[in-house]
Amino acid sequence: MPDTTRPAVRSAEFLPKILTVLKEGYGLSDLRADAIAGLTVAIVALPLSMAIAIASGVGPERGLYTAIIGGFLVSALGGSRFQIGGPAGAFIVLVSACVMDIGVEGLILATFLSGFVLLAAGALRLGTYIKFIPFPVTVGFTSGIAVIIFASQIRDLFGLTLPGPEPAEILPKVEALWAARDTFTPAALAVAALAVFTIVGLKRWKPHWPGMLIAVALCSVAAAGLGLPVVTIGSKFGELPHLPPAPALPVLSGPAITAALPYAFSFALLGAIESLLSALVADGMSGARHRSNAELVGQGLANIGSALFGGFCVTGTIARTATNVRAGSHGPVSGMLHSLFLLTFMLVAAPLAAFIPLAALAGVLAVVSWNMAEKVEFANLVRSSRGDAMVVIVTFLLVVFRDLTEGIVVGFALGGLVFIRRMSDAVAVTPASEESGRYDPAEAMRSDRVVYHLHGPYFFGAAAQVGAILDRIADNPRAIVFDFSDVPLIDSSGARSFELLGHRAGRKGGRLYIVGARPEVRRALLAQGAKEPLVRFRPDLASVDEDLARPTV
What we know:
Layout: H1 5-12, H2 17-24, H3 28-55, H4 60-77, E1 85-86, H5 92-123, H6 127-130, H7 135-157, H8 170-179, H9 186-205, H10 211-226, H11 233-237, H12 254-286, H13 292-308, E2 315-316, H14 318-326, H15 333-349, H16 358-372, H17 375-384, H18 386-401, H19 404-426, E3 428-431, E4 449-455, H20 460-474, E5 479-486, H21 492-507, E6 512-515, H22 519-527, E7 536-538, H23 541-549
Parallel strand pairs: 4-5, 5-6, 6-7
Antiparallel strand pairs: 1-2, 3-4
């Protein structure tokens, strides 16, 4: 009878979590809880979405489009029970660089294409592997993004006026901002400080109040009431539209696609990492378990939908997702309702957004960047070991001074090298005569054979470390026995080293024995040519002694 369990399990990897929630039973009490959670998240997302959009070099309305359309699709089609999608601070540097390079239309096209990249990643089940990014890499790039976000807000925090576009790279940006120091506006700094103190104070004294929304509203009232000379959303962008635009495909010409593709891959890579990290945070807070590949598919569809309605790249957002869990969400409906609440706010209160000072939104993002910088984790990694310190510092510096994607890729490679080094150090080849209790003490006196015990996974890193020992063993023309009982796996490089050792031992008149090898380890050895009579497999040491006791023909 054919086994249909495995295909069923694989197909379940792509089922949106909302189907699971509805299958479990969804009642009025669940809807009430999700409505409260959705409203709570929407109040947080409203100022944040506009602030991130402005910092990214686009109009505030596009941040709302992204949160409304993309956020709805992330919750409806994703693989996490509590994920909240929308524009993320981590994308500010990439989005602003994209806008400066290929314009807003190019940004929308890059977002559209990134959706298909994410769909392909989900279909190829790459979500499982993205979760293996080393912790020092995530800390390094998150801390680097925090620095970049704060740097992007200095102009509005101090009310500076630049003669031209603000550079995207950190060093030219600081140079341009310093050159514009004479345009400093004290009123802007006062508004930003009011926003920061309000958010920090409410978080300490009234943690359940929507600090960001209250701060933005208070700053808007103060700026309008006192007639402060500060730049507002209305003075810079005009009145916000009441509804998202009708869906439309971006321009799909060959040159446009060629220019947008590099950004599309960067958006997809960062979006996949950010959303899966956010889903893991939600799992840790709630005890649920997300479907990583379904989450990538949902993120892909959400980016396509966001681009069709004039939004930009959308991903799972850690802070808003955590707020959703803490607010008592029962499932993806709260995320869908959060988007509908944002749509309602846009429909009803769009004219009021014109009074929001940009300095207030800069204060909001300054707080976000401070909270985003993993200061304690960064310091702990720097102190823990030289390997972790190297990975987190290199990743951080590359993200800040070079490129976000480059920082992730190089950090991941360095993290892999550190892991390989640590794993190779954990592998040992121990003479049996030195292992207390495993063999008879007289083992060291045997002249017809030498026994070595291998500990740990034997892979290419370990093969390089242990190669010199194996070479010395092969110089002795006796029977050489390796106990593989504590070797859980061996890769092709490790297996190949024993095939070569068998040849070397045979040329010197010796025999190579492997005892206690697991079936999967033995198959790997055989696949690389380590087979009889070159290498002799025996179940235990007694079998080797019986073999050696037979007269040589």
